[in-house]
Design brief:
heterodimer, A: alpha+beta, 4 domains, six-stranded antiparallel beta sheet, 12% strand, B: alpha+beta, five-stranded antiparallel beta sheet, four-stranded antiparallel beta sheet, 6 helices, 18 strands, TgpA-like_C (chain A), Bact_TGase-like (chain A), membrane (chain A), transmembrane helix (chain A), transmembrane (chain A)
């Protein structure tokens, strides 16, 4: 049956708004011409709707489409791939909007709209974006309501209200589905990088690198502890160990003869011997920290955790130097669960190759430092005494902790140790490690973060870029790898209470260094808002974005003792079916009931009164029969009963002019009089 | 659908949805099924689900869940919008057989407003109405009249896709309603009437030529408009009908028995032709059919009564 259908005018506004708002997030990412296209399309459509011009013909629309495709190719160099694909989708969405005439076109537009919304979520996953998309979906739904509305005089706000009500009812069901629907493993792997280059740690360490990071207050990662929170001075988040040195820069190095396979242990591979030993030692120790790290995209593979980190996630691996490595770059926020056992470091062994690597120094660098180390070596009778001597040296000599160290000359070690003596953590870590190696103690530099700030709302830890830090680890026979932080010897405040405090103690203030310490500072309302925003952001990440199979199982096993597919299916059935049944039941129940008028209620009241006084009445008793029954049983009430009947009948059956309320009032008074007479 | 199956389906429908004068669409009568767009929408939700799984993006998964939930909510809303709608017989407009008549169906809403309700029946394009709570809404549905007699109302398909167009709720309603098809007039030279002067072809037809003006009486609805005293009405005296004395030629009786030698339907067609002819002349005439006699009279209402009687033959109410 052919039906000529024109898009109703009362829906145009919502259609236009939906198109604009759905595309908006992509316009910020996409090329500029896309915004131009959108404006063009809206203007043409507006003129068409006002009948200033005709709808562009097929030729014009095809030309527009070809131009769009060409521009997409020009901007991205290809027509596939996430960015070009999304740009093409958004353009098609706009072009479809231009040619909407029939109901069918509008439906196609809606479908495109859903996809455009989905792509926004692909690139932005914040809580605000989700609510924005919800608003877009509401608009799209309002469009659907509008185009299915037959009444030409319908008002546009009505559609939005209907759509909002429906979505409000749908959201609880969505939550249930979200919690219960099992997550399937990806069918094929797709990863989308947000493509934004962010500040973060690089895989090398040379003087000045960490201090440049300190100028950023961006969040590096967040940590939620389950149970004990380690004290500030113990929070060393290890990211990399750097073991080769070329005189200026520290780099990662693999001991000779060791394969990467042997170096990294994944969850689903047979563990090498060292890992089994480590695991055994870890099991014996009571002191351990359990926490979940949520990392911001770093576009690197390494992760941050405290020593010695054990994970169960199949995508993560643990390295022989107590680090965590992801299988692929962290291009999106990544959450992972860690159990750290600090004392397990002692169970590690040092192979001769490793010892060799950890003692190697470039030949021509730091002759003075070498002789100083040799002297310490001769004076001391054990390695730990050498370490102590070095720390004393840093503490007692006039070393300064500063964000703006002077440039170092050719020999970075000697120049720092004996001339400038002003440096940031990387200077201290680098020279300390050099000294240790020169003294014959295996040592390496560790780069990562130290400290972090606790969010007062729920106690999760926020680690920012300015918490970046570098320190050393030395191998002491019998104790294994021991962490030594030479910065603590120079500026203990850095370790105890953070960079800001350390700089304050050295006589610098953040403002005159041009630094941004916008962490959770101050108790002002602005600070409070920041704390809460951080809290919401973190919870959004841990509860919603990271809700994967593992967390689903963990959550569900809190409700059901053991999680079986049968139970999940049942729960889904109950949670989805029950509300639907309830609403349906309510609808049916409401249908059965016929609303009583005031007069009918009045009649029923008298009817029940008479029955209470011991007179049995047939269900279909008329007012006349009721009045007669009263007169028969209680002759003295006969007159009142008659009056009541007359008044009732007049009120019910004659179109009596006058105030209905007043009539009802009289009726009620008559009933009250009867109430007293019926004994 | 093959013939026997179709018959079975019809019989099942007739049993399930029996005809009645008034029908309120209850959950027993309402069917509900996704529309084409509904299926497309579900496909979109499924695609988003696959996308969410593949990109390991919980928000896209949520979006697909939201679409699915919205679909479920839409089932309720579509059903709620549709059920509770009442249909009952209205009047009907008769026509000659071979032509078309019309049936009036009145939709009423006791519980809630029903948006975008479409009514259709075979051979007729759909009509879309919305019925506001507590109000009634009349819809005329055209009906072709293939033969003389009572033409029963066909099965009406009532459907609604409101609010989202994802689902279609529909019901078949058979109203116990009919449209009368008058016989098709067939000209004949011989007037099957007696009692008057002329039993042959109709003679002069002046303005009530063979009647004598007697006076005026107050107009009652149904009086022939041609007998209204329009001049007096124009002077502002109100509506009066001119009353004439017995026609000089006496009363004419159209008699079944006088049309002879023709099949039944032909007879009725001839009677119909003369009914119209005499009505045009404004000659009072009566009708005598086996089982029914209508006293002579004239005017629109009388003509209708006579035509309806011819249509109903041989079963009169």
């Amino acid at each position: 049956m052919a039906r000529i259908y024109q898009l109703p005018t009362h829906t145009r506004l919502w259609l236009t708004l939906a198109m604009l708002l759905c595309s908006l997030p992509q316009l910020f990412r996409g090329p500029l011409w896309q915004s131009g296209l959108l404006v063009l399309v809206v203007v043409i459509r507006m003129l068409v709707d006002r009948q200033r011009i005709g709808l562009p013909g097929r030729t014009a629309r095809t030309a527009l489409l070809l131009i769009t495709v060409a521009l997409t190719f020009y901007s991205f160099g290809r027509l596939y791939g996430p960015d070009a694909g999304v740009a093409l989708l958004v353009s098609l969405f706009a072009l479809k909007y231009l040619e909407v005439v029939k109901l069918r076109d509008a439906y196609v537009l809606m479908v495109l709209g859903y996809f455009v919304c989905a792509t926004s979520l692909l690139f932005y996953q914040g809580i605000l974006m989700f609510f924005y998309v919800l608003a877009c979906i509401t608009l799209l739904t309002a469009c659907l309501v509008g185009i299915n509305h037959s009444d030409t005089s319908a008002r546009a706000p009505q559609h939005l209200r209907t759509a909002a009500v429906m979505l409000m009812q749908a959201v609880p069901l969505m939550v249930v589905l979200f919690i219960l629907v099992p997550r399937v493993a990806p069918l094929w792997n797709m990863q989308i990088g947000s493509g934004q280059v962010k500040t973060g740690m690089s895989d090398t360490l040379s003087p000045g690198e960490v201090s440049s990071l300190s100028r950023s207050s961006e969040v590096a990662f967040r940590v939620a502890f389950e149970g004990d929170v380690p004290p500030m001075a113990q929070r060393y988040w290890r990211g990399l160990t750097l073991s080769t040195f070329d005189g200026r820069t520290w780099r990662q190095g693999l001991p000779a003869g060791m394969s990467a396979q042997d170096y990294l242990v994944g969850a689903n591979q047979t563990p090498p011997h060292w890992f089994s030993v480590l695991k055994k030692a870890a099991l014996q120790d009571a002191l351990h920290y359990q926490y979940r790290v949520v990392m911001e995209p770093s576009h690197r593979r390494w992760l941050y955790a405290m020593a010695v980190p054990f994970v169960t996630d199949p995508d993560l691996r643990m390295a022989r130097d107590f680090r965590l490595v992801a299988d692929s770059q962290v291009d999106q926020r990544l959450g992972y669960q860690v159990t750290s056992v600090p004392s397990a470091t002692g169970a590690m062994t040092l192979t001769p190759q490793e010892r060799q690597l950890m003692l190697t120094l470039p030949a021509s660098v730091g002759p003075r430092a070498r002789s100083l180390a040799m002297q310490w070596r001769r004076d001391a009778d054990s390695d730990s005494v050498v370490v102590q001597t070095a720390l004393h040296y840093f503490h007692n000599e006039p070393f300064y902790y500063t964000l703006n160290p002077p440039r170092l000359e050719q020999d970075s070690i000697d120049d720092f140790l004996f001339r400038s003596r002003r440096g940031f953590c990387e200077h201290f870590a680098s020279s300390f490690t050099f000294l240790m190696r020169a003294a014959g103690i295996p040592a390496r530099v560790v780069a990562g973060y130290q400290g972090g700030q606790l969010n007062p709302v729920d106690g999760h830890l926020v680690v920012r870029q300015y918490d970046a830090h570098a320190w050393s680890e030395v191998w002491l026979d019998g104790r294994g790898w021991v962490r030594v932080d030479p910065t603590a010897a120079v500026a203990p405040q850095r370790i105890e209470s953070g960079l800001q405090a350390a700089l304050d103690a050295q006589g610098n203030t953040a403002s005159n260094l041009g630094l941004d310490f916008s962490g959770f500072s101050g108790a002002s309302w602005f600070g409070q808002i920041k704390i809460w925003m951080d809290y919401v952001d973190f919870r959004w990440q841990t509860w919603v974005l990271d809700y994967d199979t593992g967390r689903q199982l963990a959550f569900l096993s809190r409700i059901f003792v053991s999680v079986t597919p049968m139970k999940i299916a049942l729960a889904l059935l109950v949670c989805l079916g029950l509300p639907l049944l309830l609403i349906l039941g309510w609808m049916l129940w409401r249908r059965e009931r016929h609303p009583l008028s005031q007069e009918e209620k009045e009649f029923n009241r008298l009817f029940r009164l008479v029955e209470r006084r011991g007179l049995t009445l047939a269900p279909g008793t008329t007012p006349r029969q009721l009045a007669e029954a009263i007169s028969d049983r209680w002759p003295k009430a006969a007159t009142q009963a008659l009056h009541w009947r007359q008044r009732y009948e007049r009120l019910m059956y004659s179109a009596l002019p006058g105030d209905k309320k007043k009539q009802l009032y009289h009726l009620r008074r008559l009933r009250n009089r009867l109430y007293k007479l019926l004994y | 659908m093959p013939g026997p199956l179709k018959r079975l389906y019809r019989r099942w429908l007739a049993r399930r949805l029996p005809p009645a004068r008034q029908i309120v669409l209850s959950q027993k009568r309402v069917f509900i099924f996704p529309t084409g767009y509904g299926f497309l929408y579900l496909l979109v939700a499924a695609l988003l689900f696959v996308g969410g799984i593949n990109y390991e993006n919980n928000l896209i998964l949520s979006l697909s869940f939201l679409l699915a939930s919205l679909f479920m909510v839409a089932i309720l809303h579509t059903f709620m919008n549709f059920s509770g709608l009442g249909l009952r017989n209205g009047t009907s407009e008769s026509g000659f057989s071979g032509g078309s008549g019309a049936l009036q169906v009145i939709l009423f809403a006791d519980q809630r407003t029903h948006h975008s309700v479409r009514l259709s029946w075979p051979g007729q394009s759909a009509q879309q109405v919305h019925v506001i709570k507590g109000e009634e809404c009349a819809v005329w549905l055209n009906l072709s009249l293939p033969h003389r007699g009572r033409i029963a109302a066909p099965r009406i398909r009532v459907e609604s896709r409101y609010p989202l167009g994802l689902l279609c709720a529909w019901s078949y309603v058979t109203l116990d309603h009919y449209c009368l098809a008058w016989p098709r007039p067939v000209a004949s030279d011989h007037c099957p009437a007696d009692g008057g002067e002329h039993q042959h072809s109709v003679a002069s037809s002046g303005q009530g030529g063979n009647e004598e003006f007697q006076g005026l009486r107050e107009y009652t609805p149904g009086d022939s408009l041609r007998k209204v005293d329009w001049k007096g009405y124009a002077r502002g005296r109100g509506l009066y009908t001119k009353v004439f004395a017995e026609p000089a030629g006496g009363r004419l009786w159209l008699r079944w028995s006088l049309v002879e030698g023709l099949p039944e339907e032909q007879r009725l067609s001839v009677l119909c032709y003369w009914t119209l002819a005499l009505d045009k002349e404004q000659a009072p005439y009566g009708l005598e059919l086996p089982g029914l006699t209508l006293a002579p009279d004239s005017g629109d209402v009388h003509r209708w009564r006579v035509l309806d009687a011819l249509a109903c033959y041989p079963e009169f109410d």
